[in-house]
Request: fold
Amino acid sequence: MKITTPCHIIDLDALKCNLEKSISKIRSEANCSVLLALKGFSTLDILSFMRDYLDGVSASGAFEAKLGKEWVGKHVCTYSPVYSKKEIDLIADNTNHLVFNSMRQFNEYNMLAKSKNCSCGIRINPEHSSLPDFFRANPCQKNSRLGVTYEQMPSLEMFDKGKIEGIHLHTMCDQYSDALEDTIEHLIKNYEPYLKRIKWLNLGGGQMYAHKDYDIEKAIDVINKLHKLFDIEIFLEPCSGIMTNTGYFVSSVIDIIENGMNIAIIDASAVCHMPDVVFNGWYHDILGADLIDKYPYKYRVAGSSCYAGDIWGDYSFTKPLTIGDYIIFEDTAMYSMVKNNYFNGLCMPSVNTYSKENGLKTIKTYNFNTFLSSL
Reply:
């Protein structure tokens, strides 16, 4: 099969499997609502494909909220670390649950939000996470800006009077059911008076529900523990937990140079097309390759931008690379397309779907005009 690179490919068969097995199971057996986190994945045609398996979406700003309401047409929960006066009306018009990051913002905007039929909640920072404190993605790290700490919690009267109807938290990142259990136990122990008064609880994302090693039965059990103790509606906000192992990023080797080791330069850029590789140290497996010491042919895989750190990493291959060879990165659906950018004026990768029934289908391409529209 000839593929024009660079390109993203979403395996619709794998995605459907994730949705029908793990996501449908946890929705039904844990009696909870699953909202796709648009901040991690929001490709339009594929949102349509997923719609029937979701209860809605979680949004991080005005445009995502409007996208969720108009394109998915189900429940929209919006949380942002801060809302500005110029966007709060648009957000509230397109949101069912509106989550505030601070009590100052809650006090400023909750009446407006309620006038638009939003159920208002606050994000808490339980100051408890199994992630390392120094990890950039740990929302509970020291001096975090995300959420209301326990000491800052408003009076129970605000919950009794229904001013605050829900609680949102997000303390996990690509973790498994042990972390979910630990989080729920901490909530029950420390936030019981609040949990007795709210209508809904949003446990956020960061759980790898569809991963082959994930203990979905344990997750169902710990979520049902909350149902037994409290009369609340429960929401989950996965992205990786839905999209895991559904995406590939395909590129081609366009040059090989030598400077202490072989360096394969590909027709893509980590800093443009998968920036978390550069800025957060993400590592992606390459089809037919492994860690640097596994196979005899060793290469640094590097990008085509002028940024010196445009590097995916050092890999080993079973055979020598040649110009034109495909480099296929695995498990790339989340936090790639949503973060693509035009640094250096490099063209965006096309977006494609694959299924056994319909084969490879291109659903989005970019050109000079789309580059101009971004300037």
Notes: The two ends are 35 Å apart (CA to CA).
